[in-house]
Specification:
Helices cover 36% and strands 20% of the residues. The chain is α/β, with parallel strands linked by helices.
Length: 211
C-alpha cells in the first residue's frame, strides 16, 4: 500500500503536458492553446478561459518581472540606439504631460507575461529619463488593462484612466506614446492636440492609403 501511495503522490506532482487545441473566442478570433508543460502550483490564483485554468499574477510578480526585463532592455543595443535618437531633444521640448495609449495588458490571454508590453514600458522609461521629463504627469489608458495592470502602473506613479477619458488630457504640450494602436486612436489624438510629440507607428499607410 505504501508503494502505491508514493507512486500516486509522484504522479500528482508531475508536470502536465497539455494538448494543443484551437479555441474560438466571442469575437471570432482563433487561439491555439495548450501544448505547454504546466507544473501544478496551488499557490497561484487561476481564472477560467476557454475551459482552461489560467494563472493570474500578483502585483509583486508583475513588478519583479518588469524590473528583470527592464534591466535586460537597458543593456540592449536597441536601448542604446533609442537614447542616441532621443538625446538631441533633451531640454528642447515643452512637454507638460505624457499620455500612454494602448500599451496592452502585462499578461496575455493565456496567462503568460507579455514581454512586448513590458519592453514598451521600459522603452518609455528610457525616453522619459533621456528627455529629463521624469517628474511630469503620466496618464495611461487601455481597455485591456486588468485590475493588477492598473495597480502596477499606479505603483509607478501613473494615473490610469478609463477610455475615453485619457483623450481629454491630450494637448499641444503632450507627449503621446501610442504603439500599434488602431487608426481611430491616432485620429482622436490629432483632434485633441495635436500633441507636441507623438511616438507610434509609421502613419504613412493611414494617410496615403485605404484605412
Amino acid at each position: 500500500m505504501t508503494n502505491t501511495k508514493t507512486k500516486k503522490n509522484k504522479r500528482a506532482n508531475r508536470a502536465v503536458r497539455t494538448k494543443r487545441a484551437i479555441i474560438e473566442d466571442e469575437d471570432g478570433w482563433a487561439h491555439v492553446v495548450g501544448g505547454r508543460t504546466i507544473k501544478p502550483d496551488a499557490s497561484k490564483a487561476k481564472i477560467k478561459k476557454w475551459g482552461f485554468d489560467v494563472v493570474t499574477y500578483t502585483l509583486e510578480e508583475v513588478t519583479a518581472k518588469y524590473e528583470s526585463l527592464k534591466d535586460k532592455w537597458e543593456e540592449s543595443d536597441a536601448c542604446k540606439e533609442l537614447i542616441k535618437l532621443v538625446q538631441p531633444y533633451e531640454g528642447k521640448s515643452q512637454v507638460n504631460n505624457v499620455v500612454v495609449m494602448g500599451l496592452g495588458s502585462f499578461q496575455t490571454q493565456m496567462g503568460d507575461f507579455s514581454q512586448t508590453t513590458f519592453t514598451q514600458l521600459a522603452a518609455l522609461a528610457t525616453i522619459r529619463k533621456t528627455l529629463a521629463i521624469w517628474d511630469i504627469p503620466v496618464i495611461a489608458q487601455d481597455p485591456a488593462f486588468s485590475p493588477v495592470d492598473k495597480e502596477f502602473l499606479q505603483s509607478l506613479g501613473f494615473e490610469v484612466l478609463e477610455s475615453p477619458e485619457g483623450f481629454d488630457l491630450v494637448n499641444t504640450g503632450s507627449l503621446v506614446y501610442a504603439i500599434h494602436c488602431y487608426p481611430i486612436v491616432y485620429d482622436q489624438v490629432g483632434k485633441k492636440g495635436p500633441p507636441a510629440v507623438l511616438i507610434g507607428n509609421d502613419l504613412t499607410r493611414l494617410t496615403d492609403g485605404p484605412m
